[in-house]
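Side project, low priority. Logging it here so it doesn't get lost.
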Amino acid sequence: MSATFHTVEVELLRSLVGQLLELVHDAQPSAPDADDPLAAALALGDDPDRPTDPVLLRLFPDAYADEEQAAEFRRYTERGLREAKSGAAAVLLASLATPEPGRKGAPDKLDVRLDGEQATAWLRTLTDLRLALGTRLGVEEGDEGYWDSLDDDDPRAYVHHVYDWLGFIQETLVRALSAGRR
């Protein structure tokens, strides 16, 4: 699969993915407990706290309604989930590697070619980005009229356009993957 992105799109994707990585890394669970052999073997830290940031809670939701069960599940899975999200984001960033804009010889467009594994990493990261933006904006099903009614100079309108653009990239990638499997 291949796509062409303008430099401004590449910079926007890099910025968004960088912010996502900061968010995922800032609330990392603690280091593994050396006094507990099972915890050390499984790289488990202390019980991670339930996120208070709505975006983190959306990215790492409770698996159970029961608080104790949810905390136990979080203890065994959150570190791995964070590492998986970081790894997928790193794949996306690596595929956008290009000379710095403004340098002599730097292209104003970037051709990106993805294999199946890279495309999957892109899809995962695009999903995380859309979840993060949608949560921050308060996007809900069927609220397109609200977003269409905002003035173009409203910053929320701009961010919603980015949210839609990420959806377009995601949908295009899904279609390309589906066409390749036929």
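Brief comment: The chain has one domain: 2-180.
Revisit when time allows.
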